[in-house]
Design brief:
By secondary structure, this protein is an alpha+beta fold. It folds into two domains: about 120 residues; about 110 residues, hypothetical protein PF0899 fold, CATH 3.30.2320. A hairpin with a 2-residue loop joins β3 and β4.
């Protein structure tokens, strides 16, 4: 077999040219493209790691904020509970105070109504007693309305302070008497004599008739009053009964 050196040389040259062309236009661009892709892939990995780190940081921050928010929420709930407890206590205290005021007002009102009822009952009882006494004295002799009270009015006058008695004696004015009925001449003289015996000198009297006394005599002066009548006794008795009932309650 005979080898043509020129042909072999040309083929070798063609192979070298082909290799050079492939290396220049195929292998190098492919290698550059692969290198670029590798670099891009590495950048993607770096970016992914950075994103992961950022996400982890964001998650940690979110967890910290969530924990802080939960703590604040817990503190807020405690503050709200404390405020609600204080308001509840204040409302309860106010309700107790209002109830106590209402209880005191009701007690005062009941006591006032009771006193009013007692006063009304005492007034009715007094009027009834006066009516009964008046009817009873109507059945007695007329002298009983005056004679039995002359000595009492004199005794009441004697119990006044000496200065008051001296002023009455020195005034020179008639002593005013209120009587249950008109006085007879003998009864008027008996009254003057009894008063003169206490004042130590003659006296004049001025008489006014008041049937509501039922029986008795009352002496009225600018600085002194002496009551010796059945009406005055009933009024005094009614006051004592009312005072006794109030002290008992």
């Amino acid at each position: 077999m005979k080898i043509d050196l020129w042909t072999l040389g040309l083929q070798i040259i063609n192979a070298l040219v082909l290799i050079w062309l492939l290396s220049r236009f195929l292998f190098r661009p492919v290698a550059d493209m692969l290198a670029a892709r590798q670099k891009a892939a590495e950048q993607v990995i770096v970016d992914a790691q950075a994103a992961k780190a950022a996400a982890e940081n964001a998650r940690a921050t979110a967890d910290a904020e969530a924990a802080d928010l939960a703590a604040h929420r817990q503190d807020a709930l405690k503050a709200v509970e404390a405020e609600a407890a204080n308001e509840k206590a204040a409302l309860i205290a106010a309700a107790h105070a209002d109830a106590e005021k209402l209880r005191a007002a009701a007690k005062t009102e009941i006591a006032s109504e009771r006193r009013a009822e007692e006063a009304a009952a005492a007034d009715r009882a007094g009027k009834l007693a006066l009516d009964i006494a008046s009817k009873l004295f109507d059945r007695l002799p007329g002298e009983a309305r005056i004679d039995g009270f002359i000595k009492g009015i004199a005794t009441g006058l004697s119990e006044l302070p000496p200065a008051t008695r001296a002023a009455l004696a020195a005034s020179g004015k008639p002593i005013h008497l209120t009587v249950a009925r008109a006085l007879s001449t003998e009864e008027s003289e008996a009254c003057r004599a009894a008063l003169a015996g206490i004042l130590g000198g003659p006296v004049a009297i001025d008489v006014t008739e008041d049937p509501t006394l039922i029986a008795g005599i009352e002496l009225e002066a600018p600085d002194a009053t002496v009551r010796n009548s059945f009406r005055a006794d009933l009024v005094r008795l009614k006051s004592e009964l009312i005072g006794h009932d109030r002290n008992r309650t």
